[in-house]
């Protein structure tokens, strides 16, 4: 990795899957705007909304989003707003209106219905339309607006990525702190006095002494040592501790590499949890069990935060 000032490696950026962006641009007769919203998602799921007449922009917008984002539920909405100074002229579909009027007259004669009124016919969908600025007068104008729309989408995407990166930087700090806590707990378990053979032997001697207290039978020290060694072997957590250390190192490498690493870290979180469970099941002392439970709690928090990471 490159360095910014010679002080050490610079970690690549991370992205959260949460963000919002809005970009606008002037177009013929008004203003067009893209609004992007991003939330958590297992994969990349896109919903694109465009005004009537601009459905052809949908696949282009999807392709651009897919090229720049890897995960998240993305909602992209394009709106076109006409200039307030533009006078909107109603558009009447006269052929449709004539057909409806004829149908109304036939129904009146056949069933004795009340005659149709002009305001009622004009209120029917498809008869009267008020331009909202989304309609264009020529193919050339539509192509120009489409070009501006895609350029504005690219700007909005850049803003969204910046917002997700800001969230990702904050998320990195949280994840690094949680990894440090996992490492501290691993070292605490490694250095816990209860893991020593002498400690296991002392606990065993105490337990056996309670059983033999009334019999007065002498405890065979050699046999006690052998039993203590067997118990210590069964309760040995060396492999679990080594794997926890390796997982912490791998997680830190992934955080430093940046990019869409959420799924990889989630897999490591599952491995963390597996080792924590084994630690508790093998525990031969309350102190190790307490460390294992603390470890499970931190791993759960770590995995919860990962759900926000791309």
TrEMBL record:
Protein name (database record): YicC family protein
Organism in which the protein naturally occurs: Limoniibacter endophyticus
Residue ranges annotated for the Endoribonuclease YicC-like N-terminal domain, each copy included: 14-172
Residue ranges of every copy of the Endoribonuclease YicC-like C-terminal domain listed in the record: 194-310
Cofactor(s) demanded: a divalent metal cation
GO molecular function annotation: hydrolase activity; RNA endonuclease activity
Cleaved signal peptide residues: none
InterPro entries: YicC-like_C, YicC-like_N, YicC/YloC-like
Keyword Amino-acid biosynthesis listed: no
Pfam families named in the record: YicC-like_C, YicC-like_N
Keyword 4Fe-4S: no
Assigned protein family: Belongs to the YicC/YloC family.
Keywords, in A-Z order: Endonuclease, Hydrolase, Nuclease
């Amino acid at each position: 990795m490159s360095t910014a000032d010679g002080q050490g490696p610079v970690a690549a950026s991370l992205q959260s899957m949460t963000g919002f962006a809005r970009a606008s641009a002037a177009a013929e007769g008004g203003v067009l705007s893209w609004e992007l919203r991003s939330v958590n998602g297992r994969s990349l799921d896109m919903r694109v909304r465009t005004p009537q007449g601009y459905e052809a922009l949908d696949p282009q917008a999807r392709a651009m989003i897919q090229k720049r984002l890897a995960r998240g539920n993305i909602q992209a909405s394009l709106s076109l707003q006409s200039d307030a100074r533009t006078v909107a002229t109603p558009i009447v579909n006269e052929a449709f209106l004539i057909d409806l009027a004829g149908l109304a007259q036939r129904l009146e004669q056949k069933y004795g219905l009340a005659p149709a009124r002009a305001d009622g016919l004009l209120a029917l969908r498809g008869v009267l339309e008020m331009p909202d600025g989304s309609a264009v007068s020529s193919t050339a104008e539509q192509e120009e607006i489409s070009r501006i729309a895609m350029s504005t989408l690219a700007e909005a995407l850049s803003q969204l990525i910046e917002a997700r990166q800001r969230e990702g930087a904050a998320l990195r700090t949280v994840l690094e702190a949680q990894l440090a806590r996992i490492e501290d707990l691993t070292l605490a378990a490694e250095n816990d006095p209860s893991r020593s053979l002498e400690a296991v032997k002392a606990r065993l001697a105490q337990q056996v002494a309670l059983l033999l207290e009334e019999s007065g039978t002498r405890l065979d020290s050699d046999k006690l040592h052998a039993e203590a060694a067997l118990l210590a072997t069964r309760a040995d957590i060396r492999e679990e501790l080594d794997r926890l250390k390796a997982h912490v190192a791998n997680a830190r490498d992934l955080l430093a590499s940046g990019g869409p690493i959420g799924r990889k870290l989630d897999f490591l979180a599952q491995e963390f949890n597996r080792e924590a469970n084994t630690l508790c099941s093998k525990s031969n002392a309350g102190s190790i069990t307490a460390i294992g439970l603390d470890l499970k709690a931190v791993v759960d928090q770590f995995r919860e935060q990962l759900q926000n990471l791309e």
